[in-house]
Amino acid sequence: MRRSLILLIVLITSFVSFSQTTRILFVGNSLTYTNNLPELVEKEAKREGLKVQTKMIAFPNYAIIDHWDDGEVQKLIQSEKYDYVVVQQGPSSQDEGRRMLIEDGARYQKLCQNHGTQLVYFMVWPSRT
Predict the structure, then answer these.
(1) Strand bridging mode 21-28 / 84-89
(2) Where are the domains of the chain?
(3) CATH architecture observed for domain 2-123
(4) Are the C-beta atoms of 98 and 92 separated by less than 8 Å?
(5) Could you read off the pLDDT of 61-113 as tens digits, one per residue?
């Protein structure tokens, strides 16, 4: 898990300077909040000498369309300056999850583009067994 977090941090912060604080909004479900992914990313970034500030909107059994329908994500992206918005949808290996990731993700992408924010997908897949 630590290696994955370091990779995520490196990818996200690869386009900013070490003196700049990178702001990240995490949007997800229980996978994001149960593991407190934002806090893990902040801790790993600090170990690497990077400044990362996060905010999380995550609820159990929520898909990215549920967050979109609530409207809070749009308000935050429009009113705050985030460098990255990380959306978590899963499992994207199933037809419905894959459809939601592509179609609903397109809404997020358009909103992020309009506000100078980079959209990042955080995806998980269940075991084939």
Answers:
(1) parallel
(2) 2-123
(3) 3-Layer(aba) Sandwich (3.40)
(4) yes
(5) 888 999 999 999 999 999 999 999 999 877 666 777 778 888 888 999 999 99
